[in-house]
Design goal:
Length: about 600
């Protein structure tokens, strides 16, 4: 595909030479985090393919900076990044994680809000008011010449990008986000710039992007959210035209927060960022695409999409707590990489999110209930019972833990038995699998959110005693709700690095002298049944730095219409295999195959 020159007719004004930046870039932001004691700088050699994200995960699953007010959660800046091949990126490109929204205080700083440590309700109101002001008062971005743009200090074009190892994308220390499960390094905090060809308005959206080759990557833009990137793609597909895109890595903070936000479709997102920052953003022409890119970004990757073709992408650890398994998504041919001489790559932690009388009652009631279910009702599959205490006492929320593959009849007998054993205990009773910690309300809510089909998993019955609670004003009793939040079918793995890698990262954590960590939430990923041996092998290659092989495995593009469109899933029987004996790809009969689940657009 040939390179299309940028459209120079979009503006009549010449670039404004000498136009000074009047907002924070990423370097300024990190300095402010450091001064606020919200940044840890790690100069220990850190393997970006294996340990970097696992290391950061310890800052989230442990007590470090999660509940202790004198030890707030911090962002991380890695200044001595290495990879599984023994390469070092020190002095060329650092990696920063958690610097945009690692905590409410960090997010407030990204938004330019003065956080005085007030409660989240008050801070939320400040954030709301800031967004409303930016939407109503956008500040148009100003073009500057390429030679004045920090992001154009280094420009890599065709000869610098093509060729595989040591070229193009392979020169950037992109980390594995969920090592042990992800099949390639991913940009998890990159901002996609796409253009509405009908209006000329640019959209910035934060979506994952995986590496496939030195000059090729894939992206997943959510269809379900009706986002601008996907809507723009549909326009190019309808026109039968190639689509220009640019991936911004290391955006200034007021622009970085734009990515996950829903902004008015009639506004250019860089102008909205100007409204947030209170100053016009500096923009510059893309080198090989007809797009405006932020002049003060750290890295910009330009490329083109053929809307008639898709490539297999994922698995990837998602924010809903499971791996998203392989599916068909957008394939991008990279035509330029521009960057600062000393760059900072931003990455984001996604994946899985962590009175004496009350304790006594909780332990006693739980023990009595467990005994009743196991030894009176003879439901042998019951493993544990926990009555939740904080905020709601111990009689309103009961969690029952059952063995894997417990018959549905026994699950519901346990739910019924728990709500009838004591007349006012069990207004809300939930059955969960044994991988869910019943004493951790976040894990229980996770199971309810993602393992239930509410039409068949919930039963509401009347005539439960009101018990120790505020008096009812409309009748003498209340109802109870029972929820079967056990898995109804195999699911993808839990989206956290594998246990072995997390343990190795904890050893490094301790070596660099950071405070001890004790997990409060799930801290490693494990298989829940919806997985294949081939994806495991791909993940192992990614950890070993051999992700280029995985790119060869998926290099054969498929017709978009043949699989029904983006996010069509790859079924287990349709997974292609990299033959390590022949160094070729083995395709299943009938390839490409798509799973039976369709996406509701």
């Amino acid at each position: 595909m040939g390179i299309v020159a940028p459209d120079t007719t979009a503006t009549k004004d010449a670039p404004q030479k000498g136009f000074k930046r009047a907002y924070d870039d990423l370097n300024d932001h990190l300095e402010k985090l450091k001064k606020a004691d919200l940044l840890w700088t790690i100069d220990e050699p850190m393997n970006k393919d294996k340990h970097l994200h696992a290391f950061v995960r310890w800052g989230y699953v442990g007590d470090v900076g999660t509940v202790l007010t004198n030890n707030p959660k911090r962002a991380f800046l890695f200044t001595n990044v290495t990879d599984a091949k023994g390469r070092t990126y020190k002095g060329d490109c650092d990696v920063q994680v958690g610097g945009t929204a690692g905590s409410p205080a960090i997010y407030a700083m990204s938004m330019g809000i003065d956080d005085k440590g007030e409660d989240l309700t008050a801070l939320s109101q400040k954030i709301y008011q800031k967004w409303m002001h930016a939407f109503k008062n956008p500040i148009p971005a100003v073009e500057i010449p390429s030679e004045e743009a920090p992001v154009h200090e280094v420009v890599l074009l065709e000869k610098d990008i093509q060729g595989g190892a040591g070229k193009g994308l392979d020169t950037i220390p992109v980390p594995n986000n969920t090592p042990g499960w992800d099949t390639a390094p991913y940009f998890s905090a990159g901002l996609w710039i796409t253009l509405n060809p009908d209006t000329g308005i640019e959209n910035f959206s934060q979506n994952r992007c995986s590496l496939k080759a030195s000059d090729r990557m894939t992206a997943m833009w959510l269809i379900q959210t009706n986002g601008g990137a996907h809507n723009n793609w549909t326009k190019y597909k309808a026109r039968g035209e190639k689509m220009p895109v640019a991936l911004v890595v290391g955006a200034p903070p007021a622009l970085q927060v734009i990515g996950p936000q829903k902004t008015p479709e009639d506004l250019n997102d860089m102008d909205v960022a100007g409204g947030l920052a209170g100053a016009a953003y500096r923009k510059v022409r893309g080198k090989t695409v007809p797009l405006w890119v932020p002049a003060d970004a750290q890295i910009v990757i330009e490329g083109w999409i053929d809307p008639t073709k898709l490539e297999m992408e994922a698995p990837f650890g998602e924010s809903y707590g499971n791996m998203s398994v392989e599916e068909y998504n957008h394939s991008i041919t990279v035509t330029a990489i521009t960057r600062r001489k000393k760059a900072i790559l931003t990455s984001m932690i996604s994946q899985m999110a962590p009175s004496e009388s009350g304790v006594i009652k909780q332990l006693n009631y739980s023990a009595v209930m467990l005994n009743h279910l196991k030894n009176t009702l003879y439901i042998r599959q019951v493993k544990d019972v926990a009555l939740h205490g904080p905020m709601i006492g111990v009689s309103r929320f009961t969690v029952i833990v059952l063995e894997k593959n417990t018959p549905r009849t026994e699950i519901w007998r346990a739910l019924e038995g728990a709500t009838t054993f004591m007349r006012s205990v069990g207004k809300m009773t939930v059955a969960v699998d044994e991988d869910v910690n019943p004493n951790n309300i976040e894990e229980v809510l996770w199971a309810i959110a993602y393992r239930t089909d509410l039409m068949k998993s919930v039963k509401i019955e009347d005539y439960q005693a009101n018990g120790h609670a505020p008096k009812l004003r409309d009748r003498e009793w209340e109802a109870k709700i029972m929820i079967d939040a056990t898995m109804h079918y195999p699911m993808p793995p839990v989206a956290l690095p594998t246990k072995e890698i997390m343990e190795e990262a904890r050893a490094i954590w301790q070596k660099v002298g950071l405070p001890p960590v004790t997990p409060r939430w799930k801290w490693y990923g494990y298989n829940l049944g919806d997985w294949t041996d081939e994806w495991t092998k791909c993940a192992e290659r990614a950890v070993a730095g051999d992700w280029l092989i995985n790119g060869l495995r998926t290099a054969r593009l498929v017709d978009t219409d043949a699989v029904g469109g983006p996010t069509a899933g790859v079924p287990h029987k349709g997974v292609v295999v990299w033959n390590e004996k022949t160094n070729e790809v083995d395709y299943p009969p009938g390839f490409p195959l798509k799973d039976q689940f369709d996406t509701d657009e």
